Amino acid sequence: MQEFSLRTPIGYLKGVGPQRAEVLNKELAIFTFEDLLYYYPFRYNDRSVFSKINQIDPSKPGVQFIARLLDFGIQGERRSRRLVAHVKDDTGIVQLVWFQSIKWVEKNLTIGNAYVIYGSPSLFNNQISISHPEMEPYGGSKQGLKFQPVYASTEKLKKLSLDSKGIQRLVSSLFSSLKGNIYETLPDYIIAKYNLIDLPSALWGIHFPNDGGSIQRSQHRLKFEEFFFLQLKILKTKIAHSQKFKGPIFKKVGEHFTDFYEKKLPFQLTNAQKRVIREIRKDTLHGAQMNRLLQGDVGSGKTIVALMSMLLAIDNGYQACLMAPTEILAQQHYAGLKELLGEERISIDLLTGSIKQKDRKGIHEGLLNGDLNILIGTHALLEEKVKFKNLGLAIIDEQHRFGVEQRSKLWKKNSVPPHMLVMTATPIPRTLAMTLYGDLDISVIDELPVGRKPIATLHFHERSRLRMFGMLREEIAKGRQVYVVYPLIEESEKLDLLHLTAGKEFLEQEFPLPVFKIGILHGKLSPKEKEFEMNRFVKGETQILVATTVIEVGVNVPNASVMVIENAERFGLSQLHQLRGRVGRGAEQSFCILMSKEKLSKESKIRMETMVRTTDGFEIAETDLKLRGPGDLSGTQQSGVLELKLANLATDQALLQLARNEVIDIFEEDPVLELEKNRLLRDFLSKNAFGIGWEKIS
Ligand code: ADP
Ligand code: MG
């Protein structure tokens, strides 16, 4: 007898063979016995209950009932050719329809016989109809599982008879081949503490459940395991990191910081800002490198936190840099910070792609000899030539535009890596942050400066377009400016650009020259053209800017008070929120107008309602996570979040917290996992070298 293990290639499984193995590899990434074992059903057909025909609810996905076959016959021709049958119980009649396998059905059905029928009902001409139902003779020998697992399959797999049922057969064969060769992965004490079922039972229960309860217990165990091992990897990385990397020590709060705080700061810091500055100060005191993510909604005042952290660095004899994703943003930061610093004896300069070579020389020199304290810039900061004398703090603004690679380059700008502060205006729900950025420390500015008027958000349908124009006219008459944003996605890029230009032309009729001036901005323009258009708007030379989402990140035009979003139903929630954040930066009341068609999907409706109801970025992010799942959120690709098969970041938050806390406790008690009771965990980590975020860099 051959011994099989989890590592055995899937081709060796009885019922697979080379051809199916190849397709399983390609279509489902199933290479080994283990991969198939962890290929879970995505739902179950509940075959434990039977309905009567008059109880069938066409809005429910699956129904099972017993009925007698009345008649069947072919209807329609060619492509609409179908087999139609009627079945009956003592409460009513249901129609069954087949478009395929007609011959097979004809041959196997017998009028007058009773069948157990399962399928998804729908309403057709006011009659309940079920297409392609599963039918078995009533009282037949094939009494299957009460809960039938349903596996995702593909066209190519189905051609090789690997539909859901076929996959189920393979899983069956898998369990017989493996016999007892499935081993526990969690230590006994954890299983006992959280009252979990053992792994072999959980895997069996998820593929072949006896009842709803066993599905639930199996899922619970397997979800816990997913969260637990992900957190184990993440927190291990974090610990390893803090041991490995020394950071500069900012011991004192010196005169630059104090001077600025006492004399120059034009407003009171919010409590949230103060708290974050304290957190950063604490991080930079101990000689370990800081890696901190600063989350704060648009307008929450992250810049001032960045500036004060930089002053801290300078007071301790270090340089600092701030990198922004676009030229315009870098310029705005440069101008803004210069103004805030005023006469301060701090030298600050700007380095972007468009700075001339001859001007760069001075910058390079200033950086090397230490005359230059602060450098603001774009990607240009990452160039080889940019070398610092003593870089102590590197700040990245609007993090989601930069990849890990780019962060790593900043690290290498100093022999002792600088402290890193990554700022983002994309609120990330707590659970996701724990997973995506579990290896970073997280600060949150959860409070807007006082006196900000919340942006009023309105949802208009097409027929209220004139009303929208009226509002724009009023605002422009008050001297304000307006953004009008159109969606642009790759698949329909040409059409979208057409809509954008048509939209602009339409606006030009409503708001004609010479009184009104309208600019246009989209990704197909050259960087020069983009900058030209953006600058015209920043300077107030155009009143309306028609644009795609290229304006999304960080641009600050305090005089802009209206954001119109066309085809708002085509945007995701987070994106809508980001766009809305472009207005409401001045003291005046600002508006966001969501234009959409009348008939919206349920999801789009929730998005519109959420936007109208709240301006709280975290609430919006939570809703977004629930609607879309984490796979769509930026950064999730490289983070291990997608390793989660069962666990759901939106709905299993409590379980994630439980698993994370447990892992924290374990590392506290046993930092290198040397205790015998943690042997399984040590083995796991030695087999699963991890490479998220910072680890890659080292
Ligand atoms: P963001 O977090 O989006 O980067 P900014 O740092 O650009 O926000 O701040 C937005 C605006 O709020 C700026 O004009 C800034 O000067 C102002 N601001 C920041 N903090 C405060 C505060 N505590 N009180 C009043 N205004 C503030
Ligand atoms: Mg900002």
For the structure shown, list the relevant keywords:
binds adenosine-5'-diphosphate; seven-stranded parallel beta sheet; 698 residues; globular; single chain; alpha/beta; seven-stranded mixed beta sheet; binds magnesium ion; 24 helices
Low-confidence blocks of residues: 635-639, 690-698
Q: Compute the average pLDDT.
A: 88
Main sheet properties: 7 strands, mixed
Query: Kindly, what is the distance between the CA atoms of the first and last residues, rounded to a whole number of angstroms?
Result: 47 Å
Structure, described:
The protein is of the alpha/beta class and 698 residues long. The chain is 40% helix and 17% strand. The protein contains 24 helices and 22 strands. The chain has a seven-stranded mixed β-sheet. The chain has a seven-stranded parallel β-sheet with strand order 12-13-11-14-15-10-16, with helices on both faces. It has a six-stranded parallel β-sheet with strand order 17-22-21-18-20-19, with helices on both faces. Strand 12 (348-351), helix 13 and strand 13 (374-377) form a beta-alpha-beta unit. The longest helix is centred in the first third of the chain and has 33 residues, at 212-244. The two termini are 47 Å apart. 37% of the residues are buried. The model is unreliable at 635-639 and 690-698 (pLDDT under 50). The protein binds adenosine-5'-diphosphate and magnesium ion. Residues 267-270, 273, 296, 298-304, 425, 449, 556 line the site of adenosine-5'-diphosphate. Adenosine-5'-diphosphate (ADP) binds at residues 267-270, 273, 296, 298-304, 425, 449, 556.
